């Protein structure tokens, strides 16, 4: 200011060409005033000690205009911005960016009205396009993300979940003619199972379906309502749908079904079969990245007058008497348990993180290495008040698990936000017989499982050797443990938890899940119990997987090391959790009829694709390329630790996996591993004895060794002897650790055979 040229009171001209006229305080603008910059920008309004603050109007040389609140020289508060392209935003601002509730009308007359965060649409909002389309729902970083409803100008409507602007998760697509498709989407295309109801047919109540989205895909209570997925079985239960008539397994479907309204026409004009009333016909379909691979005709017996009746008192009393504590933890009790867990983990991580890192000592292991804290509802000097019930918290071996989290390259803040953030936890269905409760973090990175007291003892006993094993082998397939805790509820019941990495933490959809032990007795799943996300067993596996030579060598090298470690601890009953992401057979488009060959009124079941055509075209859905660190995601999570694998087919170099049109992924042991799945299918019973049909799919494989907390103790030895009297000892799951390990590895050699 001392370089200014003296002018009449209230006016100052600066050497750089700027000009100010108005009230001053000392040498600084203060009060009402007008400032003109040499580039043509003009501000007129309130000043405070030389800074723009209060209400005013700012006009830039580009033609942009802002009128509203300022603070400390920033656009801050409520105001209206008119851009040079004539788009107009009216609403809340924070530090020069749109933040809060606001309304923006774009230059092309599109309109957004809703919540903003740091300059982008985030939260709840409505976007209307000039062509008549309108979306109402959740946004994140400027894209449709979360639950939302899109209504197109032609009358079509989608109600469900979105991710990065595309349909992703459960949803219902309602066509203008009244037909409906309930199903799941991935990246904007149908992926997984769903049910199509032709126009005029009876279908589930949309209100019931919408209410069901407040629960996860197992029907369990969701602490956070921000994410959900609903399976075909839940949809069928809403409408009391029963399977009937015929099953058609298809090799192809017309691709225009994926993005256009023609999806509703497949099967919609099929005449009633077997005397079935037309309005009771529906179609259960399975898609793979938008390609229809399977369809079955089902009958719907929806009775709109049917009301849900409460169970009889006799049935209810039987249920209550048979309930265990774990099944009791539902509803409000489950809600409190999840809150307690989040409060405890937040306390644990917050307390141990500031402590300087050091190497673990012998005293850091065992039952005595623990911290205990009481959390009263009203809070204390050491704990915050909360909305749950009083509980006591015990954290086992905090220094050990703090070092493990760092060893696994987990940031403490990220870990805490993932589990303890506002988005909360989701309860998921237990795939096993343990009766344990499982919770999933909102970002899918972590699984939290309840433990039996015996399992806790085994974990604490093995922890010193586990710590050394995972430290020595960064590619270990064994479950990653991040923390062990205990909650004591006010009535004295103790619930123990372990936090683990989610082996299926991936942006890809997991189409099939298998729990493989290498035994055969009872290792199958009844067909009537199989749902889309059911974890299948050894005898259900109809695939063998062929991998790159070096990938397979790395896999079995680590399996040998991990099994030797478990055998030395006398551990049995562990299994390989295997997840498969199928790529839609790229060759299907080559054998489809021309686009106009299939009438919109013709069912997909009428398309006849020859067996020889399927066998003659190899899959081409995956590509291995040289690893480029800057080209793959490095988001923190359970898979961030571990080396990038080398592939023989790429000159023994480290590799990335490219999924055309989807992603580029770093290939690690048990993570993003490409393979070819050879599937043996039986044809018609009359021909199955003489004809073998193999289908080949490109798959992305995820795997890890789980359930490692069962010792071969006296109880298991007795169980082995008893079952050996009934069955072949080599086929039963429980057996001596050395035999168990050898059988486990031999079975995996059959699952992942050498060579082609």
Automatic annotation (TrEMBL):
Reactions mediated catalytically: a 1,2-diacyl-sn-glycero-3-phospho-(1D-myo-inositol 4-phosphate) + ATP = a 1,2-diacyl-sn-glycero-3-phospho-(1D-myo-inositol-4,5-bisphosphate) + ADP + H(+)
An example Gene Ontology CC term for this record: plasma membrane
Listed GO MF terms: 1-phosphatidylinositol-4-phosphate 5-kinase activity; ATP binding
Region (Disordered): 252-278
Keywords tagged on the record: ATP-binding, Kinase, Nucleotide-binding, Repeat, Transferase
Domain of life: Eukaryota
SMART domains, per database record: MORN, PIPKc
EC number: 2.7.1.68
Class of the enzyme per the UniProt entry, highest EC level: transferase
Keyword NADP: no
Domain PIPK: 331-752
UniProt xrefs under Pfam families: MORN, PIP5K
Alphabetical list of InterPro entries matching this protein: MORN (IPR003409), PIno-4-P-5_kinase_pln (IPR017163), PInositol-4-P-4/5-kinase_C_sf (IPR027483), PInositol-4-P-4/5-kinase_core (IPR002498), PInositol-4-P-5-kinase_N (IPR027484), PInositol-4/5-P-5/4-kinase (IPR023610)
Comp. bias regions, Polar residues: 260-274
Protein name, UniProt field: Phosphatidylinositol 4-phosphate 5-kinase
Organism: Raphanus sativus
């Amino acid at each position: 200011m001392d370089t200014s040229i003296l002018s009449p009171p209230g006016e100052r001209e600066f050497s750089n060409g700027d000009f100010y006229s108005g009230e001053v305080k000392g040498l600084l603008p203060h009060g009402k005033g007008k400032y003109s910059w040499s580039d043509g920008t003009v501000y007129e309004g309130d000043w405070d000690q030389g800074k723009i603050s209060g209400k005013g109007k700012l006009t830039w040389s580009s033609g942009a205009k802002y009128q509203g609140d300022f603070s400390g020289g920033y656009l801050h508060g409520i105001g209206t911005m008119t851009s040079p392209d004539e788009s107009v935003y009216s609403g809340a601002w924070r530090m020069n960016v749109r933040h809060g509730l606001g309304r923006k009308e774009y230059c092309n007359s599109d309109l957004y009205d809703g919540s903003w965060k740091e300059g982008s649409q985030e939260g709840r909002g409505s976007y209307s396009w000039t062509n008549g389309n309108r979306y109402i729902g959740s946004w994140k970083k400027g894209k449709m993300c979360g639950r939302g409803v899109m209504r197109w100008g032609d009358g079509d409507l989608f109600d469900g979940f979105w991710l990065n602007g595309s349909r992703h998760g459960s949803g219902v697509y309602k066509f203008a003619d009244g037909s409906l498709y309930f199903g799941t989407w991935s990246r904007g295309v149908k992926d997984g199972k769903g049910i199509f109801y032709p126009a005029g047919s009876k279908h589930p109540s949309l209100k019931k379906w919408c209410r069901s989205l407040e629960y996860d895909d197992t029907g369990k209570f969701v602490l956070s309502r921000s994410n959900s997925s609903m399976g075909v079985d839940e949809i069928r239960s809403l409408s009391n749908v029963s399977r009937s008539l015929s099953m058609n397994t298809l090799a192809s479907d017309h691709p225009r079904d994926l993005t256009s309204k023609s999806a509703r026409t497949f099967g919609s004009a099929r005449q009633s079969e077997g005397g079935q009333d037309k309005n009771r016909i529906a179609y259960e379909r399975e898609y793979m990245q938008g390609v229809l691979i399977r369809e079955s005709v089902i009958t719907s017996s929806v009775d709109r007058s049917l009301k849900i009746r409460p169970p009889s008192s006799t049935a209810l009393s039987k249920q209550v008497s048979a309930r265990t504590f774990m099944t009791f933890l539902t509803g409000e009790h489950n809600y409190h348990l999840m809150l307690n867990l989040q409060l405890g983990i937040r306390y644990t991580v917050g307390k141990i993180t500031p402590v300087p890192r050091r190497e673990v000592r012998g005293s850091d292991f065992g039952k005595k290495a623990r911290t205990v804290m009481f959390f009263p509802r009203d809070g204390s000097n050491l704990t915050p008040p909360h909305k749950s019930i009083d509980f006591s918290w015990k954290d086992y071996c905090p220094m050990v698990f703090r070092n493990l989290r760092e060893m696994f390259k987990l940031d403490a803040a990220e870990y805490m936000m993932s589990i303890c953030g506002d988005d909360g936890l989701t309860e998921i269905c237990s795939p096993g017989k343990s009766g344990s409760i499982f919770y999933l973090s909102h970002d899918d990175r972590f699984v939290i499982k309840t433990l039996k007291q015996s399992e806790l003892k085994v974990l604490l006993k093995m922890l010193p050797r586990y710590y050394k094993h995972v430290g020595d082998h960064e590619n270990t397939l064994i479950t990653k443990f991040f923390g062990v805790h205990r909650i004591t509820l006010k009535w004295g019941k103790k619930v123990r938890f372990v936090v683990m990495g989610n082996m299926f933490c991936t942006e890809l959809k997991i189409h099939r899940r298998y729990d493989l032990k290498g035994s055969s007795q009872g290792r199958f799943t009844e067909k009537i119990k199989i749902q889309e996300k059911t974890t299948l067993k050894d005898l259900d596996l109809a695939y063998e997987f062929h991998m790159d030579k070096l990938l397979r060598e790395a896999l079995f090298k680590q399996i040998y090391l991990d099994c030797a470690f478990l055998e030395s601890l006398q551990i049995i009953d562990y299994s390989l959790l295997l997840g498969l992401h199928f790529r839609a057979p790229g060759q299907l488009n080559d054998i489809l009829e021309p686009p106009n060959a299939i009438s919109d009124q013709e069912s997909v079941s009428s398309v006849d694709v020859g067996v020889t055509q399927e066998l003659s075209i190899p899959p081409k859905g995956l590509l291995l390329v040289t690893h480029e660190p800057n080209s793959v995601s490095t988001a923190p999570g359970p898979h961030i630790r571990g080396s990038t694998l080398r592939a023989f087919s790429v000159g023994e170099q480290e590799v990335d996996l490219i999924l055309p049109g989807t992603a580029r992924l770093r290939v690690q042991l048990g993570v993003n591993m490409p393979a070819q799945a050879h599937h043996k299918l039986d044809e018609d019973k009359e021909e199955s004895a003489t004809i073998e049909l193999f289908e080949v799919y490109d798959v992305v494989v995820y795997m890890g060794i789980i359930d490692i907390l069962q010792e071969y103790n006296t109880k298991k030895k007795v169980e082995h002897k008893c079952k050996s009297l009934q069955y072949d000892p080599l086929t039963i799951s429980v057996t001596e650790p050395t035999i168990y390990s050898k059988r486990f590895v031999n079975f995996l050699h059959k699952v992942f055979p050498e060579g082609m």
